[in-house]
TrEMBL record:
Pathway, per record: Carbohydrate degradation; pentose phosphate pathway
GO molecular function: NADP binding; phosphogluconate dehydrogenase (decarboxylating) activity
Name by which UniProt lists this protein: Decarboxylating 6-phosphogluconate dehydrogenase
Family of the protein in this entry: Belongs to the 6-phosphogluconate dehydrogenase family.
PANTHER family tied to this protein: 6-PHOSPHOGLUCONATE DEHYDROGENASE
Stretches that traverse the bilayer: none
Pfam families assigned to the protein according to its UniProt record, in alphabetical order: 6PGD, NAD_binding_2
C-alpha cells in the first residue's frame, strides 16, 4: 500500500474533487491539477495544488498513478494527448469519467505504444459516492489494474469494485449501467404519474417511503424520488424538461450494431427527448396525419374520449 500512497487527480470538480477529499481523509497524498485551480476545501484538507501538467508529473513518484475526472469528450482527448507527451513508461492513467468505450480502447492502444498504462474506470454513485464510497467498474490489463486495485477498493463501498474485463470493458459496463438507469428512471416516473392520476388523492409521499421498506422495487432512486417530492411539495413547480448528456445514445447505437434489442432503454431515451418539446410538435404531426386519413378532430373531443373510456382492456373501473 505504501507505493500507492501518492496519487494525482486531474479535474477537481464535483466528482474529482470529492474523490480527492475522500482519498485525503484516508491518508493518501493527493496532488491535483485543474485549470480552475483547487478549492479552499481541498487545500485545507491537504491537497497539493499543481499549476501545470509538468508540475503534476514532477510531484508524483514513478510509476505515477493519475486519475482523470473531467466530462467526456474533447477535454478528455486533450488530457490524454498531453499525458502521452508528458508522462513516462510505466505510469498509469485512469479515466474515471463517462467516456465512450470505443474512445477508451483507442486511447489505451495509443498510450500502450508509449509504454503508458491506461485504465478505464466507470464510476457510479454520483457526488455522494465520490465523497463517501463509490462504485467502480474497471477495464484494463491485469498487471496495471492490480496496482490500482487497492486504491479503488479503499475508495469504494464494500463490494463496489469489479475488474469487469480487458481495456474498454469498464466504460462499456458503465454505459450499460447508465442505460439500465434510464429505464428505471422512466419506469418510476411513469408509476408516479399513475399515482398522481388516480381517481382519488393518494398519499404519494407515504407510498414512496413505503415502497422503500421491504418492497421488491426498493432502491436509491425511489428514495431520491421521495426526498425530492417532499422537498418540492409535489410537481406543481417542477419543469418537465429533462436534460441529459446524450451518452446513452451511444448505447442505443451500439445495440443496433450488435443486433441486441433494448426496447425499454431506447424508449426511455426517446421519452427524455419528448420531455423537451414544450409544444409537442410530434403530437401535432400525429394529429395532422390522423385528421388526414380518418378526419379525426384536432384537440380534445369529449365524444371520442367517451368511447376511449369503454375500450380499455382489463378490469379498470368504469365508474370514473
Amino acid at each position: 500500500m505504501e507505493e500507492l500512497a501518492t496519487i494525482g487527480v486531474i479535474g477537481l470538480g464535483r466528482m474529482g474533487g470529492n474523490l480527492a477529499l475522500q482519498a485525503l481523509e484516508k491518508g493518501y497524498n493527493v496532488y491535483g491539477y485543474d485549470r480552475a485551480g483547487a478549492t479552499n476545501d481541498l487545500l485545507a484538507a491537504g491537497l497539493k495544488n499543481c499549476l501545470t501538467f509538468q508540475e503534476l508529473k514532477d510531484s508524483l513518484p514513478h510509476p505515477r498513478i493519475i486519475f482523470i475526472y473531467v466530462i467526456a469528450g474533447p477535454i478528455v482527448e486533450a488530457i490524454i494527448q498531453e499525458a502521452a507527451e508528458v508522462f513516462d513508461p510505466g505510469d498509469i492513467v485512469l479515466d474515471g469519467g463517462n467516456s465512450y468505450w470505443g474512445d477508451s480502447l483507442r486511447r489505451y492502444r495509443m498510450l500502450k505504444e508509449k509504454g503508458i498504462n491506461f485504465i478505464d474506470c466507470g464510476t457510479s454513485g454520483g457526488v455522494e459516492g465520490a465523497r463517501n464510497g463509490a462504485c467502480f467498474m474497471v477495464g484494463g490489463e491485469p498487471e496495471a489494474v492490480q496496482r490500482v486495485e487497492p486504491i479503488l477498493k479503499s475508495l469504494s463501498v464494500p463490494g463496489g469494485y469489479v475488474h469487469a474485463g480487458p481495456p474498454a470493458a469498464g466504460h462499456f459496463t458503465k454505459l450499460v449501467h447508465n442505460g439500465i438507469e434510464f429505464g428505471m428512471l422512466q419506469a418510476i416516473g411513469e408509476g408516479v404519474d399513475l399515482l398522481e392520476n388516480y381517481r382519488d388523492q393518494l398519499d404519494i409521499s407515504g407510498i414512496l417511503k413505503n415502497w422503500n421498506h421491504g418492497s421488491v422495487i426498493r432502491s436509491w432512486l425511489v428514495e431520491l424520488m421521495a426526498r425530492a417530492y417532499d422537498d418540492r411539495g409535489g410537481f406543481a413547480e417542477v419543469p418537465s424538461h429533462v436534460e441529459d448528456t446524450g451518452e446513452v445514445n451511444w448505447l442505443v447505437n451500439d445495440a443496433m450494431n450488435m443486433e441486441v434489442p433494448i426496447p425499454i432503454i431506447a424508449q426511455s431515451v426517446m421519452q427524455l427527448i419528448a420531455s423537451r418539446d414544450k409544444d409537442k410538435t410530434w403530437a401535432k404531426a400525429v394529429a395532422m396525419m390522423r385528421n388526414g386519413f380518418g378526419n379525426h378532430p384536432y384537440g380534445p373531443n369529449e365524444f371520442i374520449a367517451s368511447y376511449r373510456a369503454y375500450s380499455r382492456i382489463g378490469d379498470f373501473p368504469r365508474d370514473l
